[in-house]
Amino acid sequence: MEQEILNRLAAQEELLQKVYVSSEKTRKYFMWTLISSIVLFVVPLIGLLFAIPAMLSSLGTAYGM
To answer: Which UniProt keywords are present, listed alphabetically (predicted)?
Structure first.
């Protein structure tokens, strides 16, 4: 009886370790997805901070404003 309980406990511990490894992989996947989403959103905004004033300046000189 006691040996059966120990065997089940060992099996559960092994499965728990597999679940932990899988959840860590999923966590890292979501972290990198979030980082890439932020980068792909913020980098164009930073580019627009420089592009819009240059466009307005060239349009202003083109139309004599």
So the answer is: Membrane, Transmembrane, Transmembrane helix
Q: How many residues does the chain have?
A: 65
DSSP 17-44: HHHHHHHHHHHHHHHHHHHHHHHHHHHH
Summarised one tens digit per residue, pLDDT across range 2-24 is 999 999 999 999 999 999 999 99
Q: What does the DSSP 8-state code read for residue 63? A: T
* Backbone φ, ψ for residue 53 (5° rounding): -60, -35
Q: What are phi and psi of 64, to 5 degrees?
A: 70, 35
Rounded CA-CA distance 62/17 in Å is 67
